[in-house]
Amino acid sequence: MKMTEIFAHRGSSGTFPENTFAAFKEAEKVGSDGIEIDVHLTRDDEIVIIHDKTVDRTTNSTGLVREYTLAEIKKLDAGSWFSVENKGEKIPTLKELLDWMQGNSITLNIELKNVTIQYPDFEKRIINEIEESGLEDRIIISSFNHYALKRVNELNPKIESAILYAQQLFEPWNYAKKLGARGLHPHDPKTDLETINIAQQNGFPVRIYTVNNEERMKELIDRGCSAIISDYPEKALRIKETLRVKN
Fold first, then answer.
1. Does residue 72 lie in a domain region?
2. Per-residue pLDDT tens digits for 10-38
3. Mean pLDDT, the chain, whole residue set
4. Position 178 in a domain
5. Do residues 147 and 164 make contact, with C-beta atoms less than 8 angstroms apart?
6. Does residue 162 fall inside a structural domain?
7. How far is residue 47's CA from residue 163's CA, in Å, rounded to a whole number?
8. What is the pTM of this model?
9. H runs (alpha helix) in the chain
10. Are 112 and 142 in contact (CB under 8 A)?
11. Which residues form the domain of 107?
12. Any idea which residues carry the catalytic annotation?
Protein backbone atom coordinates (compact mmCIF):
# COMPACT_ATOMS: atom_id res chain seq x y z
CA MET A 1 0.00 0.00 0.00
CA LYS A 2 1.32 3.44 -0.94
CA MET A 3 2.15 5.59 2.07
CA THR A 4 0.14 8.74 2.74
CA GLU A 5 1.60 11.85 1.13
CA ILE A 6 2.03 14.97 3.25
CA PHE A 7 1.12 18.34 1.73
CA ALA A 8 2.14 21.58 3.43
CA HIS A 9 -0.94 23.83 3.63
CA ARG A 10 0.01 27.23 2.18
CA GLY A 11 3.54 26.01 2.79
CA SER A 12 4.56 25.23 6.34
CA SER A 13 2.06 27.83 7.50
CA GLY A 14 2.01 26.78 11.15
CA THR A 15 5.61 27.86 11.56
CA PHE A 16 6.14 30.50 8.84
CA PRO A 17 3.96 33.14 7.16
CA GLU A 18 1.56 31.40 4.80
CA ASN A 19 2.04 31.41 1.02
CA THR A 20 5.57 32.87 1.20
CA PHE A 21 8.89 31.40 0.16
CA ALA A 22 9.84 31.12 3.83
CA ALA A 23 6.95 28.66 4.25
CA PHE A 24 7.67 26.87 0.96
CA LYS A 25 11.36 26.38 1.73
CA GLU A 26 10.54 25.05 5.19
CA ALA A 27 8.08 22.59 3.64
CA GLU A 28 10.83 21.35 1.34
CA LYS A 29 13.37 21.24 4.20
CA VAL A 30 11.23 18.97 6.40
CA GLY A 31 10.55 16.61 3.49
CA SER A 32 6.98 17.42 2.43
CA ASP A 33 5.69 15.53 -0.60
CA GLY A 34 3.68 18.52 -1.76
CA ILE A 35 2.73 22.13 -1.16
CA GLU A 36 -0.76 23.62 -1.35
CA ILE A 37 -1.11 27.26 -2.44
CA ASP A 38 -3.84 29.76 -3.37
CA VAL A 39 -3.82 32.09 -6.37
CA HIS A 40 -5.40 35.41 -7.32
CA LEU A 41 -4.92 37.89 -10.17
CA THR A 42 -3.42 41.40 -9.97
CA ARG A 43 -4.67 44.46 -11.83
CA ASP A 44 -2.16 43.80 -14.61
CA ASP A 45 -3.24 40.14 -14.81
CA GLU A 46 -0.26 38.56 -13.03
CA ILE A 47 -0.89 35.40 -11.00
CA VAL A 48 0.12 35.86 -7.37
CA ILE A 49 0.09 33.49 -4.41
CA ILE A 50 -2.16 34.69 -1.59
CA HIS A 51 -5.17 33.14 0.11
CA ASP A 52 -7.60 36.04 0.57
CA LYS A 53 -9.02 38.23 -2.18
CA THR A 54 -7.74 41.20 -0.15
CA VAL A 55 -4.25 41.88 1.19
CA ASP A 56 -5.61 43.03 4.56
CA ARG A 57 -4.95 39.96 6.73
CA THR A 58 -1.48 38.96 5.55
CA THR A 59 0.26 42.21 4.58
CA ASN A 60 0.84 45.73 5.87
CA SER A 61 -1.73 47.21 3.47
CA THR A 62 -5.42 46.98 2.56
CA GLY A 63 -7.60 46.47 -0.50
CA LEU A 64 -8.35 43.86 -3.11
CA VAL A 65 -5.47 41.98 -4.71
CA ARG A 66 -7.13 42.89 -8.01
CA GLU A 67 -6.59 46.61 -7.25
CA TYR A 68 -2.80 46.26 -7.16
CA THR A 69 -0.32 45.90 -10.00
CA LEU A 70 2.38 43.28 -9.53
CA ALA A 71 4.99 46.00 -8.92
CA GLU A 72 2.78 47.50 -6.20
CA ILE A 73 2.04 44.15 -4.55
CA LYS A 74 5.76 43.32 -4.48
CA LYS A 75 6.33 46.35 -2.24
CA LEU A 76 4.09 44.92 0.49
CA ASP A 77 5.38 43.19 3.62
CA ALA A 78 3.82 39.72 3.80
CA GLY A 79 5.76 38.49 6.84
CA SER A 80 5.51 40.96 9.72
CA TRP A 81 1.92 40.00 10.56
CA PHE A 82 3.26 36.54 11.48
CA SER A 83 6.45 37.47 13.33
CA VAL A 84 9.15 40.12 13.54
CA GLU A 85 11.65 37.57 12.22
CA ASN A 86 9.70 37.27 8.97
CA LYS A 87 9.53 40.98 8.24
CA GLY A 88 10.06 41.70 4.55
CA GLU A 89 8.67 38.46 3.11
CA LYS A 90 7.05 39.13 -0.25
CA ILE A 91 3.95 37.83 -2.01
CA PRO A 92 5.31 35.38 -4.61
CA THR A 93 4.11 34.90 -8.17
CA LEU A 94 3.11 31.51 -9.50
CA LYS A 95 5.93 31.73 -12.04
CA GLU A 96 8.50 32.27 -9.27
CA LEU A 97 7.28 29.17 -7.47
CA LEU A 98 7.26 27.06 -10.64
CA ASP A 99 10.82 28.20 -11.37
CA TRP A 100 11.86 27.17 -7.84
CA MET A 101 10.25 23.77 -8.33
CA GLN A 102 12.65 23.01 -11.18
CA GLY A 103 15.21 22.26 -8.46
CA ASN A 104 13.16 19.75 -6.45
CA SER A 105 10.53 17.02 -6.83
CA ILE A 106 7.68 18.57 -4.85
CA THR A 107 4.09 18.25 -6.09
CA LEU A 108 2.11 21.50 -6.23
CA ASN A 109 -1.57 21.81 -5.42
CA ILE A 110 -2.88 25.10 -6.84
CA GLU A 111 -6.22 26.23 -5.42
CA LEU A 112 -8.10 28.59 -7.73
CA LYS A 113 -9.73 31.32 -5.66
CA ASN A 114 -12.16 32.61 -8.29
CA VAL A 115 -15.15 31.74 -6.12
CA THR A 116 -16.47 35.06 -4.80
CA ILE A 117 -14.49 37.13 -7.30
CA GLN A 118 -14.13 36.47 -11.03
CA TYR A 119 -11.00 36.95 -13.12
CA PRO A 120 -10.89 37.07 -16.94
CA ASP A 121 -9.46 33.90 -18.52
CA PHE A 122 -8.17 32.83 -15.10
CA GLU A 123 -8.01 29.12 -15.83
CA LYS A 124 -6.31 29.69 -19.19
CA ARG A 125 -3.67 31.93 -17.61
CA ILE A 126 -2.92 29.29 -14.97
CA ILE A 127 -2.71 26.49 -17.53
CA ASN A 128 -0.41 28.54 -19.77
CA GLU A 129 2.08 29.12 -16.94
CA ILE A 130 2.02 25.45 -15.97
CA GLU A 131 2.59 24.34 -19.56
CA GLU A 132 5.47 26.80 -19.98
CA SER A 133 7.11 25.34 -16.86
CA GLY A 134 6.88 21.77 -18.17
CA LEU A 135 5.65 20.58 -14.77
CA GLU A 136 2.19 19.36 -15.77
CA ASP A 137 2.75 15.95 -14.17
CA ARG A 138 3.55 17.54 -10.78
CA ILE A 139 0.50 19.79 -10.59
CA ILE A 140 -2.96 19.33 -9.05
CA ILE A 141 -5.53 22.10 -9.54
CA SER A 142 -8.31 22.29 -6.97
CA SER A 143 -11.16 24.68 -6.29
CA PHE A 144 -14.52 25.16 -4.63
CA ASN A 145 -15.53 26.63 -8.00
CA HIS A 146 -16.33 23.42 -9.85
CA TYR A 147 -17.16 25.27 -13.05
CA ALA A 148 -13.53 26.39 -13.03
CA LEU A 149 -12.38 22.78 -12.72
CA LYS A 150 -14.53 21.82 -15.70
CA ARG A 151 -12.80 24.55 -17.71
CA VAL A 152 -9.38 23.34 -16.53
CA ASN A 153 -10.14 19.83 -17.74
CA GLU A 154 -11.32 21.14 -21.10
CA LEU A 155 -8.14 23.22 -21.51
CA ASN A 156 -5.71 20.47 -20.50
CA PRO A 157 -7.09 17.11 -19.35
CA LYS A 158 -3.54 15.88 -18.64
CA ILE A 159 -3.34 18.11 -15.57
CA GLU A 160 -5.06 16.55 -12.58
CA SER A 161 -7.94 18.51 -11.08
CA ALA A 162 -9.61 17.83 -7.75
CA ILE A 163 -12.89 18.99 -6.25
CA LEU A 164 -12.72 20.90 -2.99
CA TYR A 165 -15.79 20.55 -0.80
CA ALA A 166 -16.71 21.31 2.80
CA GLN A 167 -19.91 19.27 3.19
CA GLN A 168 -20.66 15.59 2.76
CA LEU A 169 -21.39 14.64 -0.84
CA PHE A 170 -23.14 11.49 -2.03
CA GLU A 171 -20.62 9.39 -3.96
CA PRO A 172 -18.31 12.33 -4.63
CA TRP A 173 -16.18 10.23 -6.99
CA ASN A 174 -19.12 9.93 -9.40
CA TYR A 175 -19.76 13.67 -9.21
CA ALA A 176 -16.07 14.39 -9.84
CA LYS A 177 -16.14 12.17 -12.95
CA LYS A 178 -18.74 14.45 -14.54
CA LEU A 179 -16.31 17.37 -14.28
CA GLY A 180 -13.33 15.39 -15.49
CA ALA A 181 -11.76 15.75 -12.03
CA ARG A 182 -9.57 12.90 -10.79
CA GLY A 183 -9.12 13.73 -7.10
CA LEU A 184 -11.16 14.57 -3.99
CA HIS A 185 -10.14 17.24 -1.48
CA PRO A 186 -12.73 17.15 1.33
CA HIS A 187 -12.78 19.06 4.62
CA ASP A 188 -11.47 16.89 7.44
CA PRO A 189 -14.35 17.12 9.98
CA LYS A 190 -16.90 16.07 7.35
CA THR A 191 -14.97 13.04 6.06
CA ASP A 192 -15.26 9.52 7.45
CA LEU A 193 -12.87 6.61 6.92
CA GLU A 194 -15.41 4.52 5.00
CA THR A 195 -15.91 7.25 2.39
CA ILE A 196 -12.14 7.61 1.99
CA ASN A 197 -11.78 3.87 1.50
CA ILE A 198 -14.57 3.58 -1.09
CA ALA A 199 -13.38 6.65 -3.02
CA GLN A 200 -9.86 5.26 -3.24
CA GLN A 201 -11.16 1.86 -4.29
CA ASN A 202 -12.88 3.72 -7.14
CA GLY A 203 -9.53 5.17 -8.19
CA PHE A 204 -9.90 8.64 -6.67
CA PRO A 205 -7.10 9.84 -4.40
CA VAL A 206 -8.45 11.56 -1.28
CA ARG A 207 -6.42 14.44 0.13
CA ILE A 208 -7.93 15.71 3.37
CA TYR A 209 -7.65 19.35 4.51
CA THR A 210 -6.70 20.80 7.02
CA VAL A 211 -5.36 18.15 9.41
CA ASN A 212 -3.43 19.54 12.40
CA ASN A 213 -4.50 17.16 15.18
CA GLU A 214 -1.83 14.51 15.72
CA GLU A 215 -4.27 11.73 16.61
CA ARG A 216 -6.22 12.40 13.42
CA MET A 217 -2.99 12.44 11.43
CA LYS A 218 -2.10 9.05 12.85
CA GLU A 219 -5.55 7.64 12.07
CA LEU A 220 -5.56 8.84 8.47
CA ILE A 221 -1.99 7.72 7.76
CA ASP A 222 -2.60 4.35 9.43
CA ARG A 223 -5.69 3.79 7.27
CA GLY A 224 -3.87 4.66 4.05
CA CYS A 225 -5.50 7.97 3.14
CA SER A 226 -3.90 9.21 -0.09
CA ALA A 227 -2.72 12.50 1.41
CA ILE A 228 -3.27 14.92 4.24
CA ILE A 229 -2.88 18.67 3.92
CA SER A 230 -1.52 20.23 7.11
CA ASP A 231 -0.22 23.53 8.50
CA TYR A 232 2.38 21.41 10.33
CA PRO A 233 3.89 19.02 7.76
CA GLU A 234 6.83 18.22 10.04
CA LYS A 235 4.44 16.73 12.62
CA ALA A 236 2.67 14.63 10.00
CA LEU A 237 5.97 13.43 8.55
CA ARG A 238 7.22 12.42 12.01
CA ILE A 239 4.06 10.39 12.63
CA LYS A 240 4.30 8.84 9.16
CA GLU A 241 7.88 7.76 9.82
CA THR A 242 6.96 6.31 13.24
CA LEU A 243 4.17 4.23 11.69
CA ARG A 244 6.45 3.11 8.84
CA VAL A 245 9.08 1.83 11.27
CA LYS A 246 6.47 0.11 13.43
CA ASN A 247 4.96 -1.68 10.44
1. no
2. 999 999 999 999 999 999 999 999 999 99
3. 97
4. yes
5. no
6. yes
7. 21
8. 0.98
9. 21-30, 70-73, 94-101, 122-133, 146-155, 172-179, 193-201, 214-222, 233-246
10. yes
11. 5-39+92-246
12. 9, 51
